[in-house]
Design brief:
The protein has about 425 residues and is of the alpha+beta class. It contains eleven helices and 19 strands. The chain has helices at about 10-30, 40-45, 60, 85-95, 110-120, 130-145, 180-185, 260-265, 285-295, 305-310, 355-375, and strands at about 70, 75-80, 100-105, 125-130, 150-155, 170-175, 190-200, 205-210, 215-225, 240-245, 245-250, 270-280, 300-305, 320-325, 330-340, 345-355, 380-385, 400, 405-410. The strands form three sheets. Strands 5-4-3-6-7-8-9-17-19-18 form a ten-stranded mixed sheet. Strands 10-11-13-14-15-16-12 form a seven-stranded antiparallel sheet, with helices on both faces. Strand 8 and strand 9 form a beta hairpin. Helix 1 (about 10-30) runs antiparallel to helix 2. The radius of gyration is 23 Å and the shape is globular. The N and C termini lie far apart (about 75 Å).
Length: about 425
């Protein structure tokens, strides 16, 4: 005679926290006007996340945050367990079905276990990471959680995928990618989906890409943030220090920056310009950053440490940074100010520094107004990945980002009555 194992207090607490986490995920998605499939929520309720977060309390393991599990010698995060809301968003983008063959690039174990729940016993899950310590932690967590025989763990460079286990119906990349290497396309089935946090002019978004002839076409975009890719495909965003190491401009795509001139610009009095364009509540406006990145000749992200903010040289409306443009000796960046007493509605504007501050700040304001008039609440940008050999005449109008392996284009749908938006 056998008896069912007795549930401990810790088991009961973990089960309760998983159920609560599923509800938090639902709310997080609803707050940005998105939904999440019940199958994904069932996976969240089932997989013991705490098995993949050694050293954390149960409450920390089931928080809707992204705990850092490993840093490099310089203190930079190189491995984390992605926040549940983001994992749910990417799983929603993937549209996983029972029996699918899935490759995850960037491991940790927990997301692979969620995928295993979604593809079921007939599916195949391969999770890959370049870091031996991450691989060991993933293997231990998968074994402890009961998924050791349901997920294949591979140590290798994500740049090259896992051809010996492919082709794959879905490839999910859970590290920030500066480009789309050929292996990912080659190992994708003809009707497969690639879900990848691709960096475009310093902005990272989770894109769903599907084949369309020789190119990949994005069918969905989500806001995201991941630790950067390592190995052969590594290409970190360039951080240009403008005030010691405490105020920096994140610059992508080899854009020129006259660092001494911009440092001098920050020391000059600030000018302001305001757009009259307002945003409130939980309304998403991340498309505005992509719009600015598309229409402005230069584009980056201005960030600061506490010491940088305390210097008084810049004021960031959002702590983790704001979109910025510049010319040789001047800089301007997007900002927000409250327009009501309870600070629930804000107006977009720009702060500028340097001899050309007024012109640059006005330019951001005009771009913000054009976004509000022509693109806000529309379908968003059309993003495509073309072969490196694609000719200029075969590319859609708009921004062309030159990558090592590809040419990425960003264009915007025309507004009725207008012939061009870029």
């Amino acid at each position: 005679m056998t008896t069912e194992p007795t549930m401990t207090d810790e088991d009961a607490t973990a089960q309760r926290l998983r159920s609560q986490l599923a509800e938090v995920v639902v709310k997080s998605r609803a707050d940005v006007g998105r939904s999440v499939d019940e199958a994904i929520l069932d996976a969240v309720r089932t997989v013991p996340r705490h098995a993949f977060t050694p050293g954390l309390t149960l409450e920390e393991a089931y928080a809707n945050t992204s705990p850092i599990m490993q840093r490099d010698a310089h203190g930079v995060s190189i491995s984390s367990v992605s926040a549940p809301w983001l994992q749910a968003a990417m799983l929603q983008q993937a549209q996983l079905r029972p029996g699918m063959r899935v490759l995850e690039i960037g491991s940790g174990g927990y997301n692979a276990a969620l995928i295993a729940e979604l593809v079921g016993p007939a599916g195949t899950v391969v999770t890959l990471d370049i870091d031996a310590e991450v691989i060991a932690r993933a293997e231990q967590g998968l074994a402890a959680a009961g998924y050791g025989d349901k997920v294949t763990v591979v140590q290798g460079d994500g740049e090259f995928g896992a051809a010996e286990h492919g082709p794959f119906d879905r490839i999910l990349v859970t590290v920030g990618a500066p480009d789309i290497p050929p292996a990912w396309v080659d190992q994708l089935t003809e009707d497969g989906r690639l879900i990848v946090p691709l960096r475009i002019r310093g902005l990272e978004r989770s894109f769903v890409f599907e084949r369309d002839g020789s190119r990949l076409v994005s069918t969905d975009i989500e806001l995201c943030g991941f630790v950067p890719m390592q190995g052969a495909g590594a290409n970190r965003l360039r951080q240009v220090a403008l005030y010691q190491e405490d105020i920096a401009l994140g610059v992508d795509d080899r854009q020129p920056v006259d660092v001494p001139a911009l440092r001098r610009a920050l020391e000059q009095p600030r000018c302001e310009a305001w757009s009259g364009v307002q945003v409130g509540g939980m309304e998403a406006w991340d498309d505005l950053d992509l719009w600015l990145a598309t229409v402005a000749p230069t584009f980056g992200y201005l960030t600061a440490t506490d010491a940088g903010l305390d210097s008084g040289l810049i004021t960031l409306a959002i702590r983790w940074g704001m979109a910025a443009i510049w010319d040789r000796d001047s800089l301007a960046y997007l900002t927000l100010r409250p327009v009501n007493e309870d600070r629930t509605v804000f107006e977009f504007g720009a702060f500028g520094h340097g001899p050309g501050a007024r012109e640059l700040a006005d330019r951001i304001v005009q771009h913000t107004r054009s976004w509000d008039r022509d693109q806000r609440r529309e379908t968003g940008p059309h993003v495509q990945v073309h072969p490196k050999t694609a000719l200029d005449g075969d590319l859609p109008p708009g921004l062309v980002c030159e990558k090592r392996h590809s040419r990425v284009t960003v264009s915007w749908p025309p507004t009725p009555g207008r012939t061009s938006q870029v």
